[in-house]
Design brief:
The structure is a homodimer.
Chain A lengths: L1 E3 L2 E3 L2 H9 L4 H8 L4 E2 H7 L5 H13 L3 E6 L5 E6 L1 H5 L1 H14 L4
Antiparallel strand pairs in A: 1-2, 3-5, 4-5
The structure holds a DNA duplex.
DNA sequence: AATAGTAGTAACAATATTGTAACTAATGAT
DNA sequence: ATCATTAGTTACAATATTGTTACTACTATT
């Protein structure tokens, strides 16, 4: 039985997708796996996401301990996001997806 | 670039989650990976899903070539669902998730 | 002829997710 | 004092997803 903020999951796959599922979390995490990025960079790279939703997703990911937010009191202000160790540990899952997609989905 | 029924994805992770993401598809596929199952068995095992949503998800999965539906004209009628080879190929992805969850999520 | 059991469907309601557009906070440079 | 720039927030709207309840089709058994 897995537990993620009060909710319980009997299926490990569902528990995992609770953290990385949805339209945006996986692409954000996958992008951050390439290195630390600023808010604006993520916004520009993850095409289609709005700033509001991006903020929400980043907050969720931070709350779940997958990423860290670092605010620099510069000007203009700079905010950097990076994976925690916990977030980095997901690379095994993403690697499996990337490998599977490359082997099994049509490439054009 | 991956293509799944007209939609294009530049991110392999997004492309994969397009097929197995959402609230129910992964648990259904994961359950079917244990063997062929009848509609009623899936309904009884995947707790919380309604019959309507289960039907919809099964149709999606069939359309995407991940499962096969076999109808037996018996009585009472019997309908069996099982993974296709394509569906079975996802086991690498599910295994990665199960392994990650077991290593990284609190067990209670 | 009515009943029971499996695998659904139909109409509708509720909830959750995502999007849009305009606005704010901070502050060094002009 | 105003402007520019980054990283947001707020109020609201639209869309998508999921759920509820009642109903259907099939036909062997009672």
């Amino acid at each position: 039985m897995m537990e993620i903020h009060e909710k319980k999951f009997d299926c490990p796959v569902t528990a995992t997708l609770e953290l990385i599922g949805g339209r945006w979390k996986a692409p954000i995490l996958f992008y951050l796996s390439k290195g630390t990025r600023r808010f604006g960079q993520i916004d520009a790279t993850i095409s289609g996401i709005s700033r509001k939703v991006l903020t929400e997703q980043l907050k969720d990911l931070e709350k779940d301990g997958l990423i860290i937010r670092e605010y620099y009191k510069e000007l203009p202000p700079r905010v950097e996001y990076s994976l925690t160790e916990f977030g980095q540990s997901l690379s095994s899952v993403f690697n499996a997806m990337v490998h599977w997609a490359n082997e099994n989905l049509v490439k054009k």
